[in-house]
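Fold this sequence, please.
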Amino acid sequence: MEPGLYYGSFDEFVREYLRNVYRRRIDGRHRYWAGEWWRYDEAVIRLEALWRDWEHLRQDPATGMSVWWRDHADHHMAALMDPDGPFALAGEGEANTSWKGDPPPYTAPPEGMFPDVRQEPALG
């Protein structure tokens, strides 16, 4: 039997894990981020992919996390934070910037936007 999900949604993954391990200075000039990341389609797709890849690769105790960082996290986060990336129009200000060592800003998505998939009824 395959182990279940550790995080029930990629919102939970972003909020509880990714933001806390991927800390960068976000100044609205060299790196961009949007506290309301869920308003940006490309970001939603990339962040969900990061979550799904993390859930799969966490099962590999040998090299899973290294592969996740190298092939997935660093690639997608660089694209998301790029000055020409999806958050380029997010603007500056406290809602979209962070100091070195702080997690990227986070604003909760609307209730029910990303439901916990561990609670979905079984098919059959």
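Residues 32 and 84 are 9 Å apart (CA to CA). The chain has one domain: 22-109.
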